[in-house]
Amino acid sequence: MDVLSDVLTAMRTGRPKASLSMANAPWGVRFHPSAAAGCHVVLRGSCFLQSPAGEHLPLGVGDVLFTPHGDGYALVDQPGSPIVDFEPAADEHATLDEMRIAGGGPVSELLCAYYMFDPARPHPLLADLPAFIHVPARVGEHPSLRSAVELLGNELGNPRAGTDAAVPPLIDMLLLYVLRAWLDEQPESAAGWATALRDPAISGVLRDLHRHPEKPWTVADLAAVAGLSRAAFAKRFTTVLGQSPLAYLTWWRMTTAAQLLIGTDEPLRTIASRCGYASEYAFAKAFKRAYAVSPGRFRSDGAAGDRPA
To answer: What's the pLDDT score for residue 89?
Structure first.
């Protein structure tokens, strides 16, 4: 898998949800702060994003709004319209979560999706994302994103046999293409993951770290992969990503370990080896430092449903 795919796998947890929402003016919906990231696409009509500061951003047909941090906000047909609270479905396994607001005015139709990100170990990419990402509809731009919206909208609007299986990967595709669109629009001078994924030296190192976390990497080894001197590489990596190469390696090893503990039945010694630890003891000590619980407790809590799966 490539680095961005790995990042998405590490970020998201649980089952994503999506719906088609219809609202006749006047209408407004308030989304309270939560652990969920939201994505809204205007399919018909128009609306405004109302930020916590009271600012209003107009959204038209084809516009995409992504709220990665679960900040509170509202969507309204016009500033000043009455607002109701969004009430998510009680069934955590339900795929569709439709909403209807019957008013007497023009109709707006939105495709809405939301994702759960693991609050215990958020990926550093999340820190680089603004509170609200607006991808305006522009003819000829982001064709893959538009295709994902169309496919997901068709499944939600005309459920058929297999819709429950088709919707979650389509929601994942929507998230991927929104992030790609944001990354593509960042200026060359931007730091963080927007630069890291475009920088051949840094992205090559990240790819190797993600593919082989079990290797006994040193800064000199990683500098050789990047084709830079040790000092130049360490400075460049730390400047771009805000942490040292070995600090990120440790973070990724622990993230990989958590995924293996929850998603597989592999014994601890195997997971320790796959994550670059020579002994089960050393692995358990590093894991507890990262997660504040032992690997065994982490696995049992996950199996019992105490942690997001």
So the answer is: 61
**Which residues, 6 or more positions from 19, have their beta carbon under 8 angstroms from its beta carbon?**
96, 97, 98, 99, 111, 112, 113, 156
Residue 189 lies in a domain: no
**Burial level of 121, CB count in 10 A (0-12/13-18/19+)?**
middle
Scanning the chain, the segments in alpha helix (DSSP H) are 3-11, 124-128, 143-157, 163-184, 193-196, 200-211, 219-226, 230-241, 245-263, 268-274, 280-291, 295-303
For residue 12, the model assigns a pLDDT of 79
Q: With beta carbons less than 8 A apart as the criterion, state whether 18 and 111 touch.
A: yes
Query: What mean pLDDT is predicted for residues 188-203?
Result: 86
In angstroms, rounded to a whole number, what is the distance separating the alpha carbons of residues 155 and 176? Answer: 18
Last residue of a domain, one of 155, 184, 213: 184
Are residues 171 and 204 both part of a single domain? no
Measure the N-to-C terminal CA separation of the chain; round to a whole number of Å: 20
Mark whether 173 and 234 lie in a shared domain.
no
Average pLDDT over residues 4-27: 87
Pair 273, 204 in one domain:
yes
Question: Is 210 within the bounds of a domain?
Answer: yes
pLDDT in tens, 74-121: 999 999 999 999 876 655 555 545 678 877 889 999 999 988 887 767
- 176 and 217 part of one domain: no
**Closest by CA position to 102, among listed 82, 87, 73, 88:** 82
Note down the domain range covering 51.
3-184
